[in-house]
Amino acid sequence: MKSKSIIVLGAGISGLATAALLAKAGNQVTVIEGSSWIGGKSKRIIVDGQRMDTGPALVTFPGVWQEFIRRYDLLGNQDKKAIEIAPITFEPLAEVGEYFYKGDKCLLPVEQGNKWHEPWARFEKIHGKLDQEITTLLTNTSMSPKAVPAVSKLVSNYGIRLTTKSYLDGLKWLPEGLKEVISIHTLNAGVAPESTLALFATMPAVMASQKVLVPVGGVNEIPLTLEKLARHAGVEIVMGEKAIAISKNKVKTESREYQAEIIISSLDAKVTDRLLGKSTNESGRKMSCSGVAIYAVLDQDLPAGTKTHSVIMPDDPGALHKALGDKKVPKESMVFVNYYQAGHIYPNSKSTVAVLITAPADGKHYGIDSEFAKAELERVSKVMGLPKNIKEYFSSFEVLDPEYFSGWGATGGALYGEARKIWQSGPLHTPKHSSIVRPWLWRVGASTHPGGGIPAVLGGSLIATEKLLRRLGV
Ligand SMILES: Cc1cc2nc3c(=O)[nH]c(=O)nc-3n(C[C@H](O)[C@H](O)[C@H](O)COP(=O)(O)OP(=O)(O)OC[C@H]3O[C@@H](n4cnc5c(N)ncnc54)[C@H](O)[C@@H]3O)c2cc1C
Asked: For the residues of 283-328, what is the DSSP string, one character each?
């Protein structure tokens, strides 16, 4: 193969993974990142001397990471294995989380003795072992021969019930409350269970049976590991240089112009479109959700027994989905509470908590004392049975809100960009990594996989680089 010059826009997980693979295969790769940090949506912050990784908190489908490492090791110069260049350890959490819904609470997997244990065990038996099939689809295009058995196994599982909601509604033996606990996970793709494929119902069962993982040191260890692998393969990473225009084989930044045979964008889809000079009127479009995320250092631990990951659901999930779809503040939201005691996962001397409140993608600023955040913090404290408002445990904190997310991501701070059509909501669709109109431009990560998180963007990088390397003759 003749080495190509390649520019990758964005040093988030997908940009770095793509750059690492392409450089390992012998290409000359430069990553251009507009901000000052590595990791994009996964940003490490230090509050009161304590480390907290913002953005993604849990890693699912670890087979996708293993497949990335396998392919990295196989490409080009094999002087050192990835594990020697940048070791990373993933720690499984004891449970996916503790879920609170309308006065009921359960762990996932639902514990013995809980009224939902038996129906959950039945549900998990059907769905919990589909991780292999989903991992195959996340790492191979759905057109590939490898994907055919996986697609047919998944499709035969859901029958004619296309959406998460219709599929779960069809399971008459599943209690209503447990259905809600399962379907709230579609918010991980930023949208309602009516707008996601039935496949999303499977996700919590796979997460429960495979366990969710967190890298020791925090999730930001993933992009930091990718950075090391990319640099080892010869990638040059330019930080703090924002792209302001993309044209054929050219990227214009605030300070200079770069030329390359191939340009790969990992920026949110509409950000990429704007840089291409396309009109991107999104005012009337349905967007996925945003968040008000409070990262706090505690001066006192939460009560004994508080789980690492808690999910406080709204009494009326339908009303939440509607409000988010209308870009309105919901009466009650879905809130994740991620609690790390001193020394657990992070090398911290104090305990920390991240309270992640699902919010409309309205681009607005929400402080800790905004009406919305205040009401949700009060509700969370009450529902979790804390003896005082969770705010009173905080010694220092930082808040990230839709205004922050919209600063460099999708319009309104939508975490997963525009809400996609239902058939584009899972790994069964084939995203457009390239087009015949602009054969020099490729898209990965947030640009093609708005929902789905780390496995989707990492798997998308694997699929896109495989296609690109094939086109380049490798
Ligand atoms: C609050 C939150 C919670 C989440 N929770 C989870 C979770 O628990 N598990 C999970 O798997 N996933 C989760 N996700 C999703 C996951 O974080 C993303 O899917 C993933 O990080 C996207 O990576 P990416 O590289 O594709 O995009 P990004 O991380 O968005 O990277 C794009 C990069 O491009 C840069 N950029 C933007 N504009 C320009 C420009 N003009 N010029 C140059 N650079 C530019 C950005 O600064 C950024 O670094 C969460 C996301 C958020 C925000």
From this structure: TTS-B--EEEEEEEEESSPPPTT--SEEEE--S-HHHHHHHHHTT-
- What is the topology classification, in CATH, of domain 289-406? Alpha-Beta Plaits (3.30.70)
- What DSSP line would sit under 227-253, residue for residue? HHHHHHTT-EEE-S--EEEEETTEEEE
DSSP string, 250-271: EEEESS-EEE-SEEEE-S-HHH
> What are the extents of the domains in the chain?
5-91+216-282+420-471, 117-211, 289-406
SS3 percent helix, strand, coil of the chain, rounded to 5, is: 35, 20, 40
Nearest atom, ligand 1, residue 11 CA: 49
Residue 98 gets the label, from left (phi > 0), alpha (psi -120 to 50) or beta, of beta
Query: What is the per-residue burial (b if ≥16 Cβ within 10 Å, else e) of 3-13?
Result: ebebbbbbbbb
Choose one of 14, 267, 433 to mutate for the ligand 1 pocket test, by most ligand atoms within 8 angstroms of C-beta. Answer: 267
DSSP class of 340: E
Q: Both tokens of residue 142?
A: 């759905």
Query: What is the residue with the minimal CA distance to atom 13 of ligand 1?
Result: 56
Task: Catalogue the long-range contacts made by 178-181 (C-beta closer than 8 Å, 24 or more residues apart).
Answer: 178/106, 178/110, 178/116, 178/119, 178/120, 178/123, 180/101, 180/313, 180/317, 181/99, 181/101, 181/106, 181/108, 181/313
User: In degrees rounded to 5, what are phi and psi of residue 163?
Assistant: -100, 160
What fold does the segment set 5-91+216-282+420-471 form as a domain?
Answer: FAD/NAD(P)-binding domain (3.50.50)
Query: What lines the ligand 1 site, CB under 6 Å?
Result: 9-15, 32-35, 40-42, 55-58, 242-243, 266-267, 271, 291, 293, 356, 408-409, 415, 445-446, 453-454, 457
Distance 138 CA to ligand 1 centre (A): 17
Q: What is the mean pLDDT of each run of 10 residues along the chain (474 residues)?
A: 90 97 97 97 97 95 97 94 98 96 96 98 94 90 82 82 90 96 83 84 92 97 98 98 97 97 92 88 76 97 97 94 93 97 98 97 96 98 98 98 88 80 60 88 80 86 94 81
Q: What angle do CA 444, 447, 453 make, to 5 degrees?
A: 80
State the distance from the centre of ligand 1 to the C-alpha of 446, rounded, in angstroms: 7
Packing angle, helices 147-158 and 199-210, rounded to 10: 110
Q: Locate 253 and state its tokens.
A: 């930044």
What pTM was computed for the model?
Answer: 0.95
Of how many residues is the chain composed? 474
Q: Which of 331, 295, 327 is nearest to 313 (CA)?
A: 331
